[in-house]
Amino acid sequence: MKILYFDCFAGASGDMILGALLSAGASLETIKKELAKLPLSGYELQQTQVLKKGLSATRLLVEVKQAQQPHRSYRSIKEMLMTSELAAPVRDLSLAVFARLAAAEAKIHGRAPEEVHFHEVGAVDSIIDIVGAAAALTELNADKIYASPLHTGRGFVDCVHGRLPVPAPATLEVLAGAPVYAGEIEGELLTPTGAAIIATVAEFGPLPLMTVRQIGYGAGQKDLPIANVLRVIVGDSADSGTAMHEQITVLETAIDDQNPEFYGYIMERLFAAGALDVTLTPLYMKKNRPGVLLTVLVEAAQEEAVTAVIFQETTTLGLRRSKADKLRLARRLQTVDTPYGSVRIKIAEQNGQVCNAAPEFADCAALARQQQVPLKEVYQAALQAFRSLQQP
């Protein structure tokens, strides 16, 4: 199982995350390709190597030509992402990060998430940081992402709302349930963007048992008493190839008074908030009413955000919540070439033996549209290409 670990001893920001992921093996060209699918202009990306306390680190600088950036609303950013041609995993992860930021801002300012207007986070460079990080994480394709406790810094920071304590209120709200500490360094080490990305994708804990394969360092802009870098460690777990035991939360509610047209939208919001899986099961309830059992699987870090979506978007008055042990086969991706283009194959293994292999639907669908051929032909060609590679 592939593991990615964020070592946040000097905090984290969007550009530090991007730099660290590039240093750990992500491709700048892949990031640029995804960002080109957004209606954003007037910026340039510059990747350089710098020294921080003797450590060579990657800095990804987003140079924006327009000095005054517009304040974008969460609604407009969500619409931009939903209507874009971003790869589905990149789009969904970006939406989840912005949803977390919007929920934090909404709670602080006492308004609905859809009414939130982002200031710094709505600027071009922050959108690039979030979508770029989503593209890099998708490319690195870790099975599990962890992070150390987050170093926030201390003191005060100046922002559009005035002088605020560190960590800034939005940052702290994003990190509800996450382990943080102030340390001895004055200033803001952890930005709202950095906090939201890591809190959305990672579980918090010590460095897990792993075989290290790649180490990346992403540089921050300030010079600090310590090396101002974010370290990313990529490796394989010791029991890679075996079934993994994980604990997840199961949220369930039975609903008999919901407009059924809403369920597709509700599922989209739940996945954007971090749900692992969402299922709808028809059932009969009291008074012989037809209803739906909504079941959501979610990791602990995203449980609060997912619960909030259920209460906001459905008519339920309560939830059943339980913990479950999840047994998961080790997974990896392998790219195969077909007459229509390249397709990723998702492979599930146990003890080194392939148990299942399936082409990525999004890849097949994209090629079917581009080549104007039936989807089933692309899917079968990908399976055949994979099987031919398995033959001795």
Describe this structure in words.
- This protein has 392 residues and is of the alpha+beta class.
- The chain has 3 domains: 2-237, no CATH class; 244-328, Transcriptional regulatory protein pf0864 domain like (Alpha-Beta Plaits, 2-Layer Sandwich); 330-390, Roll (Ubiquitin-like (UB roll)).
- It is built from 11 helices and 20 strands.
- The chain has helices at residues 14-23, 28-35, 74-82, 88-109, 124-140, 169-174, 192-201, 263-272, 303-313, 361-371, 375-390, and strands at 2-7, 43-52, 55-64, 144-147, 150-151, 153-154, 156-159, 162-165, 180-181, 187-188, 203-204, 210-219, 229-237, 244-255, 277-284, 290-298, 320-328, 330-338, 341-350, 353-359.
- The strands form 7 sheets. It has a 5-stranded mixed beta sheet with strand order 11-4-1-13-12. It has a 4-stranded antiparallel beta sheet with strand order 15-16-14-17, with helices on one face.
- A hairpin with a 2-residue loop joins strand 19 (341-350) and strand 20 (353-359).
- Helix 4 (88-109) packs across helix 5 and helix 10 (361-371) crosses helix 11.
- It is globular, with a radius of gyration of 22 Å.
- The mean pLDDT is 89.
